[in-house]
Design a protein that fits this description.
This protein is an alpha+beta fold. Helices cover about 30% and strands about 25% of the residues. It has 2 domains: about 300 residues, Aminopeptidase; about 140 residues, Aminopeptidase i, Domain 2 (Roll), CATH 2.30.250. Strands 1-2-3-14-4-15-21-17-19 form a 9-stranded mixed β-sheet, sandwiched between helices. Strands 8-7-11-5-6-10-9 form a 7-stranded antiparallel β-sheet.
Length: about 475
């Protein structure tokens, strides 16, 4: 049951649309390297498409009706978008759920220090990474610094061509004989992922050489720059969320420009295509929903993760504004009768590492959206295993809409595995299946994807949202 490469079936008009979508995707991916930035960009797009903020709807007392568009955010890191359908929400919704956090390095709360005339920032890595991949490459700082006076400073340094960039150093091969004897997981220890940010000492002209040395003059110079350029002091790091990410924009990959290389495509490639599909929905029968969540890479925990009650609460508020909330039972029915695509990436087959894949059951570039009936590790541990009936429904939806799709598992049975947010939504009793886009280099600083799969992803997600 080999699936056909989607490139072989495109008309010239479809190719133009495909490449145009990819250009927009690259811009979005480059602008939204953190979950906060993704929500900010999504809110801009939602407002432009006529969405109203849920809190404003509630305060105004306005009643929502079929066709109305509304969105809600939580702590600037999680977002839900709704297009109200003609059918009651208690009969179920069509939901696209994706996560917008990605593996990275986070600054510790007390990060800045000096060692032998170099100023560095301590980090704590976030999510599953190969630590050695983060050395000797240009890095950028993104995030927010919240100050005691209630103001905040947005940080985005290293993306503009005129900006400085930062780096985690690596050991030169001339001195790396002992390092090279270690396992790859031990090349670089977590505590060694320290970001180099400066080397020039602060000179005031009135200290002795010994006094300058005692005052950590390089660190002092960095603090001077932070104060002058950003208005922050060292203690402000205590209430900061600064993410260290690869510097530079997403770009075309390959002579034929058929692929995209960029940071954070797990899972922003599915989040973007879900968002793009949601923005195209106008008058659905079943309420169409795009849910963008945080913290998936560390277990979907916390107030902005999929385990929180944010989405359930948002559904209740939307139902109330639509005059459809009469009791908690209505919300329970809405959740349990819903259908969901857990929009998360799958691993594309890599001919350089073919030994970890089973060729009949893996994803391939250019063959469309990927269904993972189950994920989990080895014996399906931690997975959501979708029902045969729901898989059959997905086949019908996608085939009727002429969407290229394929099925896959995440590597050979004993090779590893992974999880998504699917099982969390399935706890409500709703039908959920993992459906995403295949990428290479998953969790690396730079990941790669096929433009054809991005195109089929948006097409497939739109077909799902509109199916009644």
């Amino acid at each position: 049951m080999e699936r056909r490469n989607a490139w072989l079936s495109y008309t010239e008009e479809e190719r133009k649309e495909l490449f145009a979508l990819s250009e927009d995707y690259k811009k979005f991916l480059s602008a939204a390297k953190t979950e906060r930035e993704f929500v900010t960009e999504s809110v801009k797009a939602a407002k432009k498409a006529g969405y109203q903020e849920l809190g404003e709807v509630i305060r105004s007392g306005k009643k929502l009706s079929a066709g109305d568009r509304v969105y809600a955010t939580w702590y600037g890191k999680t977002m839900a978008m709704f297009v109200i359908g003609t059918e009651p929400m208690a009969e179920g919704m069509n939901i696209l759920g994706a996560h917008i956090d990605s593996p990275r390095l986070d600054l510790k709360q007390n990060p800045l220090y000096e060692d032998t005339d170099q100023a560095l920032l301590d980090t704590h890595y976030y999510g599953g990474i190969k630590k050695y991949q983060w050395t000797a490459m240009p890095l950028a700082l993104h995030g927010v610094i919240a100050k005691k006076d209630g103001t905040s400073v947005t940080v985005r340094i290293g993306e503009d061509p005129s900006d400085p960039v930062f780096m985690v150093s690596d050991l030169l091969p001339h001195l790396g004989a002992e390092q090279m004897k270690k396992k790859a997981s031990e090349f670089i220890e977590g505590e060694d992922l320290n970001v180099l940010v400066g080397s020039e000492p602060l000179i005031t002209g009135d200290e002795t050489d010994e006094e300058k040395k005692d005052k950590e003059a390089v660190k002092a110079n960095i603090l001077r720059i932070l104060e002058e350029q950003y208005g922050v002091e060292e203690e402000d790091f205590l209430s900061a969320e600064i993410e260290v990410v690869p510097a530079g924009p997403a770009r075309d990959l390959g002579f034929d420009r058929s692929m995209v290389i960029g940071y954070g495509q797990d899972d922003r490639i599915c989040a973007y295509t879900s968002l793009a599909a949601q923005l195209m929905v106008e008058h659905p029968k079943r309420t169409a929903v795009c849910l963008l969540v945080d913290k998936e890479e560390i277990g979907s925990v916390g107030a902005t993760g999929a385990h929180s009650h944010f989405f359930e609460n948002a559904v209740a508020e939307v139902m109330n504004c639509a005059g459809q909330y009469h009791s908690e039972l209505d919300v329970r029915r809405a959740m349990s009768y819903s259908r969901m695509l857990s929009s998360d990436v799958s691993a594309a087959y890599d001919p350089n590492y073919s030994s970890v894949s089973e060729k009949k059951n893996c994803a391939y570039f250019g063959r469309g959206l990927v269904f993972n009936k189950y994920t989990g590790a080895r014996g399906k541990s931690g997975s959501n295993d979708a029902s045969a009936e729901y898989m059959a429904l997905m086949r019908r939806i996608f085939d009727e809409s002429n969407v290229a799709w394929q099925t896959a598992e995440l590597g050979k049975v004993d090779a590893g595995g992974g999880g998504t947010i699917a099982y969390i939504s399935a706890n409500y009793g709703m039908n959920v299946i993992d459906s995403g886009i295949a990428i290479l280099n998953m969790h690396a600083p730079w990941e790669a994807a096929s433009k054809a799969d991005i195109y089929e992803g948006r097409k497939g997600y739109l077909a799902f949202l509109l199916y009644d």
